[in-house]
Amino acid sequence: MKNMNYWLIAICLLSITWSACNRSDATISNKNSSQNATSYSLYTVKKQAVDNTLRLPAQLSPYEFVNIYPKVSGYIKRILVDIGSQVKEGQVIMVMEAPEVEQNNLAARERYIKAQALFISSKDSYNRLLNTAKTAGAVSPNDLQTAQSRMLSDSALCNSEKANWKAMESLKDYLIVKAPFDGTITQRNIHPGALVTVGNKMDATPMLELQQISKLRLQLKVSETFATQLAMNQKISFIVDALPGKTFTGIISRQANSLDEKYRSESVELDVLNTDNVLMPGMYAEVLLPIIGHSNACIIPQTAVVTSTEKKYVIKVKNHKAIMIDVSTGNENNGMIEVFGEIMPNDSIIATAGDDITQNQYIKY
Hints:
Blueprint: H1 2-36, E1 42-44, E2 46-47, E3 52-68, E4 74-79, E5 86-87, E6 92-97, H2 99-132, H3 141-173, E7 176-178, E8 183-188, E9 195-196, E10 208-223, H4 224-227, E11 235-240, E12 248-260, E13 265-273, E14 284-291, E15 298-301, E16 306-307, E17 312-318, E18 321-333, E19 336-341, E20 348-350
Antiparallel strand pairs: 1-20, 2-15, 3-10, 3-14, 4-6, 4-9, 5-8, 6-7, 8-10, 10-13, 11-12, 11-14, 12-13, 15-19, 16-17, 17-18, 18-19
């Protein structure tokens, strides 16, 4: 019995010694693991907006543009302008001649004069019969009705011939071509003596091309993310590759107020004064669009945002443990980026994070 007690005591002592050794080994292992862990730099989250300048491609176009086609067929008699000519609104730029138009106009005028004479005659006859009819039985009602009908018919014919004559007069006016607005002749495709005909405008070559280039339109597309930050009459700067070192300005004058369904962008136009004619339509430009940051945003280094195929997140560190926080991003500038999510100012995050860090991983800093 006594020997049995000795054996029990010995076994208990061995168990206690084994447990103590295991705990000591685990403590040493954890300590060694912590010492061997990669050290990370932390960044303290700040609440601040990030202003930025967005660079967008754009193109310059004439403020007004028109291709001039013939309204009537005829021959070119005189051309008073050439490529590069500056013209004013209403200025005569071309004179055409069409003998058949002149003859048709004279014929229409003669038909109107004839119809007018018939109307005057029938009207006079009706008025005489009307006066005679005041004497009972002098004129039959049927004769009076016939005279009135003839007068109304001649009146309608006279008005019709007059309208036809005026239409011919307007065609005659088209033989003298005038500038519809102030601008510059940018194309000339005809010469005196050439025959021009009225045809399909889609296939025909215009006689002249007129552009207003003293004032230009700068056309660009702005994504929906930044479209809400634009305002009418806002002054915007831009540069063009053809004139390095120079910065120009324009004013937002037109906004579509609707997004293109394919590109999710809004069409915007700026008015650009070009009084010295340095800029030319067709030039490509780069718009320097100022972007105002979001007042409710927090800013962190761009390297702190981890982007996977499913989400964007940052790694918050609390009590040496890694915590994944899903975020969405906003403006970025000089290596900093706006983030939105369950992240607060003064939180500590890993400044340079990667997808190799796992949830609840021990973080050494």
